[in-house]
Amino acid sequence: MPDSQPQPRRDGAAEDTSSLLLTGAKLTDGRTVDVRMGGGRIEAVGTAGSLTAHSARVDLAGHLLLPAPAEPHGHHATALTADTDGPVPYDVPDIQRRTTESALLQLGHGATALRSHVPIGGVQGLGPMEAVLQARRSLRGLVDLTAVAVPRLLTGVAGADGLAMLRDAVKMGAGVVGGCPDLDPDPTGYVEAVLEVAAEHGCPVDLHTDGADPARLARLASMAGGLRPSVGIGPCSGLGRLPAQAAARAAEGLAAAGVTVVCLPQGDCGGLEQRGTGAAPVRLLQAAGVRVAAGSGALRDVANPVGRGDPLEAAYLLASQHGRTPADAYAAVSSTARAAMGLPEVRVEAGFPAELLAVRGERLGSVLSLAYSRVVVHRGRVVARTSAVREYCDSAAAVALDLPRQGRSQGNGTA
């Protein structure tokens, strides 16, 4: 593939005079390149040493440069609460702090766009939504955060307040309409209400479902077809517990309706009452033509007290446990996740958004295995760095292999 050449901006946005040059980065096709960015986009990609920097320069020698991951299924309002003594606080300042901290943790992992499922209703009312939207504003320029409004009930007398609150949440700034039809006495009516509100406001839909009821999935797929491709569901682990033929038919129905499935390879999330049910049958879904993205789910809350929220771990698990190639696994947390979230495509080519992740390593497989040191680029500037240094005690083996040793300052000790 020839080097990308400089491209003019076409989005009408004001030009950003600052620029950044990434040098010596390895791409997945084996090339070593320089990448110049400006105005939030990639301006040029050329062979190493061929581009000049107008201002800042970052040396990425020894790093693999990738399109940045995105998080299509996070629960930031409840994150980091697994070790809380007593009841979890749900005051607006507490939720805002948790959301901000967990979003920054995921940014450090490389995710520059996050979709956060926010519970509304009950005693807290719209407080959690207010807190997450405040966190979104404080994070602007570091990471893009989209809030999903998640009401508990939407049907019957009890659901009237939930439906009104759902509309209010969208007016406040929720960008996606969500929820969990499995927990409503009338799951079909719940989905109808969600789709109606989404159509009113032109919002995407992102629903929690276990997926264990094939008839219910078929109805959902039939109803969602009119909004394609803006409907996603997950984590759908129940599909894996169905008989093979029933699961295959359900997957074919989802594919025909253009419904995206967001699986959670790292564990459960708090959106469903069932826990420990495993991950969705990724191979079966993809074989049927379903678009499958991968998210993180719970980040150290009661649903998964050790959840990391790391997209690269999700990709690693897809490769190691679900038979995906490293490239397919990484696509599930990057290009496919971005498409599921309605975000522009990212490639390491001129003209594309400068949303990038550099990880120390030579090949994608090794990066998914040992993704320690990372450099995260959002809108054309470095917004997070993680550096890991490994050193060994002074021993004959370390000397023979010229490994970095304690007490010796060596640049090659970074992992």
From TrEMBL:
It holds the Pfam family Amidohydro_3. One of its GO terms (molecular function) is hydrolase activity, acting on carbon-nitrogen (but not peptide) bonds, in cyclic amidines. Residues 145-383 form the Amidohydrolase domain. InterPro entries: Amidohydro_3, Metal-dep_hydrolase_composite, Metal_Hydrolase, Metallo-hydrolase_Enzymes. Keywords: Hydrolase. This is Hydrolase. It comes from Streptomyces triticagri.
